[in-house]
Write a structure and sequence with these properties.
233 residues, mainly beta, Thaumatin, five-stranded mixed beta sheet, 1 helix
Length: 233
């Protein structure tokens, strides 16, 4: 009887553990966002969240406080990232916005940034994740994006994008994951700002916006700041 009792307990524990394991394993882990400064100087990073109205608003992260060490409240914040430092964040809500360096996002160039500003755009931990480096409004720095772990990132002809890096101004056509200057829809310039003239050559295919399958997430999206580009036209 004693042996029969022990066997019964072991069977219950075994199937109980199997059940718990299956439940945990069926839920993908949320995607981590990390920012690295690979230069020898501190760099000013801006985080700008996408603003949403009801009924979507409660589903999204809508305050930057505490994200990537931003101390501000609201949809936009900034923080100095030290040399060779890494900041990271994993959201529990839908996480949508952009990251820029040195300045908030700009649509047009100005005296301080005569070649405009490029940004990293992201939609993470939502029904369908997507990311890109947008040089649509210019280029003020070199950013590299490493897509580490998790499921594939698809961009038209590219079936599994894992590394994205923009180049200096006028040299971003044909790079998977990068919107060239003035190319609002990747393959054309419809609706671009007048100040984004002349624009770069649009891409032949829609390769600018790597996207995952619906419901897929996990792994790490890692943005590395590699330095500012020359401030000259």
């Amino acid at each position: 009887m004693k042996n029969l009792f022990l066997i019964t307990i072991m069977i219950i524990l075994f199937f109980g553990c199997q059940s718990d394991s299956k439940i945990i394993g069926s839920e993908p882990q949320n995607t981590e966002l990390a920012v690295i400064n690979s230069t020898k100087d501190s760099v000013l990073m801006y985080l700008t969240l996408s603003g949403y109205n009801l009924p979507e608003k409660p589903k999204y992260v809508q305050n930057v406080r505490g994200i990537l060490k931003c101390p501000q409240d609201g949809l936009q914040g900034f923080v100095w990232v030290k040399p060779n430092d890494t900041l990271s964040y994993i959201s529990t809500k839908y996480f949508s916005g952009n990251i820029s360096f040195g300045t908030p996002p700009l649509n047009c160039s100005n005296d301080k940034w005569p070649l405009g500003v490029n940004i990293f755009e992201f939609n993470l931990n939502n029904p369908q994740e997507s990311i890109d480096l947008s040089c649509m409004a210019g280029v003020n720095c070199i950013m590299k994006v490493d897509l580490v772990g998790g499921t594939n990132w698809l961009a038209d002809t590219s079936l599994n994008t894992r590394v994205i890096e923009n180049k200096e101004m006028w040299y971003n056509t044909g790079i998977v994951g990068v919107y060239p200057y003035g190319c609002t829809n990747c393959i054309n310039t419809d609706g671009k700002q007048l100040c984004q003239t002349p624009n770069e050559t649009p891409n032949e295919y829609r390769i600018c916006n790597p996207t995952r399958g619906k419901g897929e997430r996990g792994g790490k999206v890692q943005i590395t700041f590699k330095g500012y580009t020359e401030k000259k036209k």
